[in-house]
């Protein structure tokens, strides 16, 4: 049996992409709430404040705030062992810097967590998933060290409140998105300088490390992971300069994991910052903070692979569906142009494990596709089953043939949700269909897709049904 018997099967969502109720029960605005739906071929607009004539997908999302009981019951019906969700910081501290937490925000997550536990589903909570409180704008968001303390206070509040009920945490979703989607990662403009992005990332590293240490002090059973956006890449040719160019790209991404896993900046990054005249606002004691706050495990998302080389330009700029380096002629693409590469997942697991030797968890993977609901309410998403099946079989090989300890797998968007990169609803990932269109029109009724029954079988057979 390649999949260990305690393998954590489940699904993953984020607060802003499912909850809606963006201003209900005391919730404050977040950076996700000022992103109107993206127009085809354009970069995503950020309006800084809510403009009445614009449509903001997060404001209703899939109304999970109302439908959470039904949604979690569906996850339980599929047999989930784990559910990865995120807390909206702005639901708990509406402005990010409030003195006291919003009790109604905590009460909402009490209901969610207790419901998961009643189904024996382990909650895995991301503390910040693309939704920094908008109230922190006055400080410059993550560019300001003040935000480190505010994040630690928020984390301490929820870790104390949920002590004994939540033992699996992730600090920042896809922390390396500070280089690719900095607004999502921490309220930093895409046009910000490299130095500003590196300072914001440095503050997130310090914040994450402090929270890891704190989590262990609050409850020795707490396990805290990092969350890496799986930007894995192949060289464009065997030319040494392409190999080097590809290596440089990988390192620009993997340096985030180096810091969080090894507790210090790698030499190649320090040299690069020196060349670019980038100075980090390091304080006495910071080195120790980073070292003491090394993560317990590595989690990552995996959707695609890139192809990089000596002339790959722009790959780190605006990677919100617009640029993925060179085209890989050997791979088919999704309807959104994301190359589909199941074998790349085994490559990713090997790269991460043999670089860090930490337990790994795939906390996002899936196919964004247009689904068609038939007149009788059936959705035949065989393409999604095919995608997931092939990826899961590669995980099986990584466990069975490469000896990699994989803790679990949470598919992205087990229920349809709004896209993080473009705000569309039509880019669907779910096993459960939600009847709502890109502009929030629909009944919001939930329907089980064909993949719902397939995934249920995968879980109940602990992966045996894949073969
Ligand atoms: C990851 C994010 O980058 O990719 C998710 O953590 C996101 O929030 C997912 O939804 C898929 O991307 P998209 O753009 O299809 O929503």
> Helix segment count?
13
CATH architecture: Alpha-Beta Barrel
Bound molecules: 6-O-phosphono-beta-D-glucopyranose
Mean pLDDT: 95
State the name of the first-level CATH class: Alpha Beta
Percent of residues in β-strands: 5-15%
Measured distance between first and last alpha carbons: 12 Å
Percent range for helical residues? 25-40%
Low-confidence stretches: none
Largest sheet: number of strands, sense, barrel closure: 8 strands, parallel, barrel
Q: Tell me, what's the shape?
A: globular
CATH H-level superfamily title: Glycosidases
Q: Which fold name is given in CATH as the topology? A: TIM Barrel
Count every beta strand, where a strand is a DSSP E run of 2 or more residues: 12
Q: What can you see in these coordinates?
A:
- The chain has a single domain (8-466), classed as Glycosidases (TIM Barrel, Alpha-Beta Barrel), CATH 3.20.20.80.
- The longest helix has 25 residues, at 194-218.
- The model has no long low-confidence stretch (mean pLDDT 95).
- The protein has helices at 15-18, 64-78, 89-92, 103-118, 146-161, 182-186, 194-218, 240-262, 267-275, 286-292, 342-356, 382-400, 450-460; strands at 8-12, 82-86, 122-128, 168-172, 223-229, 232-235, 297-301, 305-308, 360-364, 406-412, 432-434, 446-448.
- β9, α12 and β10 (406-412) form a beta-alpha-beta unit.
- The strands form three sheets. The protein has an eight-stranded parallel β-barrel with strand order 1-2-3-4-5-7-9-10, surrounded by five helices. The protein has a two-stranded parallel sheet with strand order 6-8. Strands 11-12 form a two-stranded antiparallel sheet.
- The protein is globular, with a radius of gyration of 21 Å.
- It is α/β, with parallel strands linked by helices.
- It is built from 13 helices and twelve strands.
- α11 (342-356) runs parallel beside α12.
- Bound molecules: 6-O-phosphono-beta-D-glucopyranose.
- Residues 14, 17, 130, 173-174, 229, 301, 364, 368, 412, 419-421, 427 line the site of 6-O-phosphono-beta-D-glucopyranose.
